[in-house]
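thought: fold this chain, then report.
action: predict
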Amino acid sequence: MTDIAVVILTKDEKLHIKRCMEKLAPLEARQIFVVDCFSTDGTQDIARSFGAIVVEREWPGLYAPQLNWALENLPIEAEWVMRLDADEYYLPDAIDELKEKLPTLPDDVTGVISKRRHYIFGGWAKHGTYPVKLLRVFRRGKAVCEERYMDEHMQLTEGRAVEFDYDFVDHNLNSFEWWKSKHRGYAKREAMDALEIMQELKSGAHRNIKIDGQAAAKRKKKYQYYKLPRFFRAVVYFCIRYFLKFGFLDGLTGFRWHFWQGLWYRWLVDREIGRMKRG
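observation:
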């Protein structure tokens, strides 16, 4: 048994939850919690069949409040906690690494950073955005989820993080139409974050914001991005990913990933920013 508790937030995840649980099985986690928003597709029963503890709770509107509630209120007994989405899973080498290394980490190490792969549009989008390095494993009580509308990161409240070698995977099995619909919703939320960032830039408040770790690095990149003209920055972003970072090497998968997520989605965000500014 690995002294780790896995926390998964779900809502109608029948398509993914069985795979998620099967991929988790070799970890032999001490506890698995599924915080479900009253799914109607049987997600809860599938999770329970794998030994998960299912807690049902209404969606508070954003990811971070739900996850932070779970971290504060679930009966977590394990020393380590893993944040995982239903459409994500750790590769076998990554699970072996967690089992081997977690018990050996010194007390001042309170977080583990892993690299995320995207499997999408028929393959692995290996170039252009990979690796995205994320804090997904942390000591109980030593991390919180950043309160943002979009792109929330885990932040350590004390201690330091180390980076492990092997990857976890984001591999959503829903249709392309589903993906586009979800990203239209994401665009509205990201536009709200963007307006806050632009206001910080305009007022100079960005110079005084104190954020540590990954959140700080991400924030600095967003400051640089939103200094560029609207819509033009989406084109620049696509060109950097697809050409300068060799996204084209992934063939059709690479083109679709960088066009739809790097250009089309960013264009939507800028359109939403314009709409919100107009009132």
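thought: worth noting. The chain has a mean pLDDT of 95.
final: tokens above.
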